[in-house]
Amino acid sequence: MNKGVLTALLSILLAQGFKIPLHYIKRKEWKPELFFQTGGMPSSHSAGVASLTTFIALKKGVKTIDFALSFIFGLIVMYDAQGIRRQTGELTLKVNSLDELVRKAHEKESVEFEEKKPKRLKEMLGHQPQEVVGGALLGLVMGSLGFLLSKKDRQRKRFFVR
Description:
Layout (H helix, E strand, L loop, with lengths): L2 H25 L16 H17 L4 H18 L1 H25 L20 H33 L1
Helix pairs in contact: 1-2, 1-5, 2-3, 2-5, 3-4
């Protein structure tokens, strides 16, 4: 498998895994389901793109088109993760609060009201800026480790081929 892709995927998985103990430390609440959710600290989006960009920079150099593509797409992903997606998440919080308010208002009325129960909207969609930075830092570390491990693999292969 492509070592850059493997490094990025491992970074994403590691970031998702870190969300569980970090949430526990912050809220004293154990939530393993966070592994499968978006949002939270650290950003797995940022970790994935930063690790791939770091891997490419170390392997091919920063003057290559590979690095340029990864860097620009990485910036777009990180901007989107903390910009548009975060705003969507905040809007969702307001919609869910409004839903609660409407429900309470209807409970106080004497008129029969039959409401279909909509599925509650997911509130954790995007990231705070510090979550994006945390993911990017994790990605830098993972990209560097991925590069160093792939470099050792190449050296080992050369040793055995001779």
